[in-house]
From TrEMBL, chain A:
<keyword id="KW-0472">Membrane</keyword>
<feature type="transmembrane region" description="Helical">
    <location>
        <begin position="65"/>
        <end position="83"/>
    </location>
</feature>
<keyword id="KW-1133">Transmembrane helix</keyword>
<feature type="transmembrane region" description="Helical">
    <location>
        <begin position="241"/>
        <end position="262"/>
    </location>
</feature>
<feature type="transmembrane region" description="Helical">
    <location>
        <begin position="321"/>
        <end position="338"/>
    </location>
</feature>
<feature type="transmembrane region" description="Helical">
    <location>
        <begin position="141"/>
        <end position="161"/>
    </location>
</feature>
<keyword id="KW-0812">Transmembrane</keyword>
<feature type="transmembrane region" description="Helical">
    <location>
        <begin position="114"/>
        <end position="134"/>
    </location>
</feature>
<keyword id="KW-1003">Cell membrane</keyword>
From TrEMBL, chain B:
<feature type="compositionally biased region" description="Low complexity">
    <location>
        <begin position="1"/>
        <end position="22"/>
    </location>
</feature>
<dbReference type="Pfam" id="PF02653">
    <property type="entry name" value="BPD_transp_2"/>
</dbReference>
<feature type="transmembrane region" description="Helical">
    <location>
        <begin position="284"/>
        <end position="314"/>
    </location>
</feature>
<feature type="transmembrane region" description="Helical">
    <location>
        <begin position="74"/>
        <end position="96"/>
    </location>
</feature>
<feature type="transmembrane region" description="Helical">
    <location>
        <begin position="192"/>
        <end position="214"/>
    </location>
</feature>
<keyword id="KW-0472">Membrane</keyword>
<feature type="transmembrane region" description="Helical">
    <location>
        <begin position="244"/>
        <end position="263"/>
    </location>
</feature>
<keyword id="KW-0997">Cell inner membrane</keyword>
<keyword id="KW-0813">Transport</keyword>
Length: 371, 380
């Protein structure tokens, strides 16, 4: 697949950087891109947290942390689809709030309603995504505005229906999805369901991004005109990205019911946190570059950072400031790193350096799905 | 061709129109809207505004009240002034191809710094106002430098700066803080003939100044150029950093002024007044509603004021009808999407065809010059 990107390049000696060398070399090269560096960042932060609080490194503690982070990581992966397609989804928090309230009020004490409720929530998530996507692609409204409208409308509606207060309480069997887990697992003690769901979502996402849909999605984000001329249905690809984002928000909402309970303010701020995580994962705003697991790793890095600040007893009110500082630094560094790390190695044999005056001679937007 | 920047650019072309080839004249005519589409986006937004006002007047009358009372007009204009000031700044930032999500926190910070500096004494007003505006300008400068020199996306730079400021606010200010000077509070209550509040006059003056800057100064033209296409502007010899920084600085400055206006009304500095007003998202919505392209390079302040007015009138009539405050958000969201959907369809149609059917792409010169030379790639 990555061979496609090199077709206009007639320098025969040139091989795409991502496909040459041994696995180790490729891993090393991937690690210096922003999408790879976030894994290093997460590792460094993890070591820092363990240093600050040694018990954090024990498997049961760790797996609980992963479980706690699962909703934001899943939301970040959902946001990834939209961002890599060159759009924004600001409606995520409102979707989470909607789903949480639906779960609280529809299920109630009725155990038999759990499965229909999940089906209903997923359907509503898909519809919201469909509306977002169609407004963006067919009505040509900027996605920022569409999803802002959805956010205001959904959020307003939910708060109106609930009166802005916590209402309803789903049965415990539903809440178990978010807070429970498989008992008596050898090393881990407990394997929380969120971790299993996160793993499933991550594997599915990787598979999806390697499928034709994922390739087309990245191409559409990189250059929608070119993707359209190449024969892909850009509008439908992007619409599906919005649906995936809303579905991810729905899953995050289901998990959050277990942790946070039913309140219309549950999802507040999730959209910006998810965008932060995605950006921290080296995904370029404007589309076309980035790996889905880097987005999830961005979420983990962010949460690890917050844990670290907690253990250092920094006032929690500074969280926002740290988050702001981090994303600015991450993006400023990433803007440099993408250009440095991706620059084709300048061999002296290169016949005419000025023969390829294109400002982006090697812009392998599609290759990042493989590192 | 509704952008003010294109108006002065096209004047010399029309004066020499008789001398140029009919082909290019035809091409330019094709680029111009014609017939029913002649209505330009600013006119459209004001038509919508008139429609909204009429609808509001009717709805208010149904409630048994008069929309055009002195008090109600005062209320609408007051509601416009704060969001309007922020939206003017946001227009500049969006025109130059960036975004500013930090405005609510700058507004909150401005009310706190000003109120803390004044401590309810008239003698402290000049220093407090200066400090407030200088701080706002500094924040704008930081964002401008991040966006222009470090190539950080405007969304991220302003979100990050906004978060930093919000963390500072949350850590250092728990409740209301300081007190406005009596003079400033008086300013907030004063106005002309009991209809036009002073705050609205401030808004009009700022709108006028910014419009003049956009139309007649080099900075204004560069703003449009950089917003339209940063690379092309750079290759045309525009220093792209200047307009970006200027837009962010002006935007934060105006947010600071908006904070002062809010302070004149509330009397105390409040750390959450900006984020409660959701000035970031609403100002962006107003700007887009006013016909400015979110991608930058096209739009006007006049349209933005129209967009702000629509919001203010809607809010007012919902207040009169005693709509549930949460339902207001629902209506607002719906209006934003619907209005922009209608507008966006038009702007796509009305964009001048750059590669339309009437334009013949010139063949590559080397191929024409040396047809005998065999080339391995055939231009089919």
């Amino acid at each position: 697949m990555s061979a496609i990107t090199s077709t206009p390049d007639r320098r025969d000696t040139h091989v795409l950087p991502a496909s040459e060398g041994s696995l180790f070399q490729r891993l090393l090269r991937g690690a210096v891109t922003p999408g790879g560096a976030v894994f290093l960042l997460a590792a460094v932060l993890f070591i820092a947290v363990v240093w600050a609080n040694p018990s954090f490194g024990e498997p049961p503690q760790l797996i609980r942390f992963i479980g706690r982070t699962a909703p934001i990581a899943i939301a970040a992966m959902g946001q990834y689809y939209v961002i890599v397609a060159g759009e924004f989804d600001l409606s995520m928090g409102a979707v989470i709030a909607t789903q949480v309230v639906i779960a609280g009020n529809y299920i109630g004490d009725d155990e038999s309603r759990v499965l229909p409720a999940i089906a209903l929530m997923l359907a509503i998530g898909a519809v919201v995504g469909l509306v977002n996507g169609l407004c963006t692609t067919l009505l040509k409204v900027p996605s920022f505005i569409v999803t802002l409208g959805t956010m205001l409308a959904l959020g307003g509606l939910v708060r109106y229906l609930t009166g802005g207060a916590a209402t309803g309480n789903p049965v415990d069997s539903f809440r178990e999805i978010g807070r429970g887990g498989l008992q008596d697992v050898p090393v881990l003690d407990v394997l929380p369901y969120p971790v299993i769901i996160l793993t499933v979502v991550a594997v599915a996402s990787v598979w999806l991004m390697r499928s034709p849909f994922g390739r087309t999605l990245i191409a559409s984000g990189d250059n929608p005109d070119a993707a359209g001329l190449a024969g892909s249905h850009v509008w439908w690809v992007k619409t599906r990205a919005f649906m995936l984002s809303s579905l991810a928000a729905t899953v995050a909402g289901i998990l959050l019911v277990g942790y946070a309970g039913v309140h219309p303010s549950v999802g507040a701020g999730y959209e910006f946190q998810a965008i932060t995580a995605v950006v921290l994962g080296g995904v370029v705003l404007g589309g076309g570059r980035g790996w889905v697991l880097s987005a999830a790793a961005g979420a983990f890095a962010l949460e690890l950072l917050f844990s670290f600040l907690n253990f250092q007893e920094v006032e929690s009110t500074w969280r926002n400031s740290v988050q702001g500082l981090i994303i600015i630094l991450a993006v400023a560094l990433a803007a440099r790193a993408w250009t440095l790390g991706r620059r084709p190695s300048r061999t002296p044999a290169s016949p005419t350096p000025s023969a390829a005056p294109s400002p982006t001679p090697a812009r392998p937007g599609t290759e990042t799905g493989e590192n | 061709m509704s952008t003010p920047a294109s108006t002065p650019a096209s004047t010399p072309a029309t004066t020499s129109g008789s001398a140029e080839a009919p082909e290019s004249v035809r091409r330019r005519r094709a680029a111009r809207p014609r017939g029913a589409r002649r209505l330009d986006s600013t006119a459209l937004i004001y038509l919508v505004l008139v429609g909204v006002v009429v609808a509001s007047a009717v709805l208010t009358a149904v409630e048994g009240r008069n929309f055009f009372t002195q008090g109600n007009i005062w209320a609408v204009l007051t509601a416009m002034s704060v969001l309007g000031l922020i939206a003017i700044g946001q227009t500049l930032v969006i025109l130059v191809g960036s975004l500013d999500l930090s405005v609510p926190y700058v507004v909150s910070l401005a009310t706190l710094v000003a109120a803390g500096g004044m401590k309810g004494l008239d003698s402290n007003v000049p220093a407090a106002v200066f400090n407030t505006l200088a701080l706002s300008v500094l924040i704008g400068l930081v964002m401008g430098l991040l966006v222009s020199l470090l190539d950080v996306h405007g969304f991220i730079a302003s979100l990050g700066v906004g978060l930093i400021v919000s963390g500072y606010l949350a850590t250092n200010y728990q409740g209301s803080h300081g007190a406005a000077a009596p003079d400033l509070s008086l300013l907030g209550r004063s106005g002309i003939a009991g209809i036009i509040p002073t705050a609205f006059i401030v808004l009009l003056v700022c709108a006028l100044l910014v419009t003049l800057v956009l139309r007649y100064t080099r900075l204004g033209h560069h703003l449009y150029a950089v917003g339209g296409n940063r690379e092309v502007a750079r290759m045309s010899g525009v220093r792209t950093a200047g307009p970006v920084i200027a837009a962010h600085v002006i935007c934060s400055f105006l947010a600071g002024v908006a904070g002062l206006l809010l302070l004149s009304r509330t009397g105390v500095g409040l750390p959450t007044i900006g984020s409660q007003g959701r000035y970031d998202l609403l100002s962006i919505a107003a700007v887009v509603l006013g016909g400015t392209l979110l991608a930058g390079g096209k739009g006007s302040v006049v349209g933005t004021i129209g967009g702000v007015a629509i919001f203010a009138v809607l809010d007012n009539v919902m207040g009169v009808m005693q709509v549930n405050p949460f339902l207001k958000d629902f209506v607002r969201g719906l209006v934003i999407v619907l209005a922009v959907a209608v507008y966006a369809r038009r702007s796509v149609v009305r964009r001048p065809p750059r590669f339309g059917p009437d334009r013949v792409l010139p063949l590559p010169v080397p191929l024409l010059a040396s047809p005998s030379k065999p080339t391995d790639q055939d231009p089919a």
